[in-house]
Structure prediction request, 525 residues.
Amino acid sequence: MSDVLTAVSFDAEGFMTDGNAWNEEIGKAIAAREGIDLTDRHWVVINYCRAEWKAKGEAPTLRNITKNTDVSTKELYELFPGGPGKLAAKVSGLKKPTGCI
Amino acid sequence: MKTLMILGGGTAGTLIARKMYKELDKGTWKIVLVDQDPNHYYQPGYLFVPFGMYTAKHVVRPKKNFFPRGIDYITAEVERIDADNNRVTLTDGRQLYYNYLVIATGTDIHPQETEGMLGDGWRKNVHEFYTYEGTLALTEAVKNFKGGRIAVQITEMPIKCPVAPLEFAFLADWYFTKKKMRDKVEIVYATPLSGAFTKPVASQALADMLKRKNIQMEADFATMEVDSSANVLRSYDNREIPYDLLVTVPVNMGAAMIGRSGLGDDLNYVPTNKETLQSNRYPNIFVMGDATNLPTSKAGSVIHFQMETVAENMLAHMRNKPLEHHFDGHALCYIETGYSQAVMIDFSYDVEPLMGKYPLPVVGPFSLLKSTWINHLGKMGFYYMYYEMMLRGIDVPLPTRYSLVGKEKTPTLNLENERTPKNV
Prediction:
């Protein structure tokens, strides 16, 4: 694990417990741990997630991201393979999205 | 006269209308309920129609049978809510004013949200069972199915009754076994979730059950399109599921009118305080049932458990008292598993489904997370409880608060007593 992450607190599933402790370096390190190389397009998503979280207190849904950025669902799956909602929240230092019950 | 207006006369609207009619002073308050559909549908029954367990007449009754006689019932469509001015406009142009408003407009399916879903196969070999028309059309398709692959698929979460598609898969396994053609039928369960359910313990138990019933699970399947020309489902990460019969749960959304009124989130659900059930923006608006954005299941049991909170808090607000009644996210679901067996799960915002007994600790009679005949009787008996008690304002003997008493906190995943197909 990268040094940047040693001081960071995560929950059992690897989501940061305190979104305020996040910075871009930590974001890059989490992405690296998940096997993602961050590009400008990733940052469009991450910055949007951070802004939504600051405004509303939780990670945005996929639908919300695609509605309010120029990133399509298809592209989201390419940027964050597997589960883009969860992965984008993770890299953005946010808690696991609560959307689906 | 002051007005309490209720939008939506489904399970939530009917229950709160009855409750508030009992509570409010009839000299001071009148209750106005607006709904566009004169029929009350027993939606849990939609699941059973395709397997011949219920017929069409079981699942539809006139709405007005269940409303208190003293309320004003208007059959009309709502154009918009103007919450800043406490006004509701109907599509016929009528304008109605309220002092308090309960939004109980539910959720509905939106197949048009998914590329190709409404293509050539719609209602031919692409079906749903979340509407009255849908379940009747699917009944014919199931009856006439000659064999091949059935894909049961959830498009996007959240959906109404998140266990219903699982139940459909279980019942299909049972139905085609009974018809002695299970060897000709392949069943695939495709879900956008990472497992069979959202909460870990139940997810594991249900995944085991799918496996034993020879139902393949395709997890993390985010549906991109339905291709009717090739009869294939495609996901955003380029997986394909060919089907002969697709049983889909299309995208669920709240009422379009909520969106038009600027009161909804991305899926037209109303942002609601998860404890008080008051609108986050308007203190004289309360929200119930499927119409909320709450992180709990969209299900009838949840409405039953919410009712007390909505009624108590609305009455408190009318008297300028603090809102002290807190909803805990309690949900209770029966999962019908075929062979006259069912599993029951009981959970809240904070506690995932665990093993144990319900509603009485140890005694039950219902077993949690286990497949039993008694649970099945509970599910089938709920039909009578729903029509004859719940909707008529007679207290249903299920406690509102979630309780940990009688639950096993370190669950063992034991579904041993599940009956096997040998009895068929």
Q: What stands out?
A: The CA atoms of residues 330 and 348 of chain B lie 4 Å apart. Residues 300-318 of chain B form the longest helix (19 residues).
